[in-house]
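Complex 253.
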Amino acid sequence: MELGLKGKRVIVPASTKGILRRVVDQLIDEGCDVAICSRSEDTVARSLRELSGGKGIAIGRACDVNDKDDYEAWLEEMIEQLGGVDIFIPGVSAGGGADSERNWWKSFEVDVLSTVRGCEVVIPHMEESGGGAITFITTTASVETFGGPQAYNAMKGSLLVYAKQLSQEVGKDGIRVNCVSPGPVYFEGGVWQMLKDTMAKWFAKVERDHPLGRLGTPEEVSNCIVFLSSPAASWVSGTNLIVDGGFTKRVQF
Ligand SMILES: NC(=O)c1ccc[n+]([C@@H]2O[C@H](COP(=O)([O-])OP(=O)(O)OC[C@H]3O[C@@H](n4cnc5c(N)ncnc54)[C@H](OP(=O)(O)O)[C@@H]3O)[C@@H](O)[C@H]2O)c1
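Predicted structure with NAP bound:
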């Protein structure tokens, strides 16, 4: 299948590791020019070195998406350097944490507010250039009970509602908005490696709860994010694609 991604200008914040780093790798392989960031200058510099010499160009600098002014400035800088923006993939998370008021604020600001702010910067540019695609990264923990009542699940759930309503608003401008909700994804240095090391029994139960008997890989989720964000998915908007190896148990009509 031809994804139609060659030459697309893409912004992927918070993308120096895990699922979104794999998304960046794949987009560069498809010939996109991609803007990346994370909070660490060293990590961004290393990622840019690793990404150089591909079919597309990688640009970026350190930026904390929770810093409103710097995040908005970073977005405008990246749009200027890329010459516009066709695809925006905001998928940052504060990672939740224990159920305290501080974590609720942190999850709201990082997971939700930064996504809203990002869309508000990016959408006028997409409107000007005749369209685009926005893909949020949410989680299966926002569509099924998982891990108890906590900010992470609820804030990610609010993104599903926002994405759906945004898709209705911006469709007339040729902009598609979708979500990808991954189930547990394992990679070295990721949250599930930490859980495997610290809560081995629970980790094994989560593995067993997957019909496929294992957690996902960044690549398996990234394949779906890249497809939904690409022109090949031109008639998909307002949807939430669950990518979880059958982990969730609800019937998805
Ligand atoms: N892994 C899973 O099992 C899983 C399952 C479902 C959904 N998800 C969702 O998928 C997304 C990616 O998760 P992941 O596990 O692949 O990676 P991750 O461990 O959450 O890290 C992803 C990246 O985000 C950057 N980052 C974090 N906070 C930032 C901030 N405030 N500003 C800028 N960059 C920031 C990190 O770099 P720095 O630390 O250097 O800033 C890192 O490059 C998240 O939204 C997560 O909730 C993950």
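Residues 189 and 243 are 21 Å apart (CA to CA).
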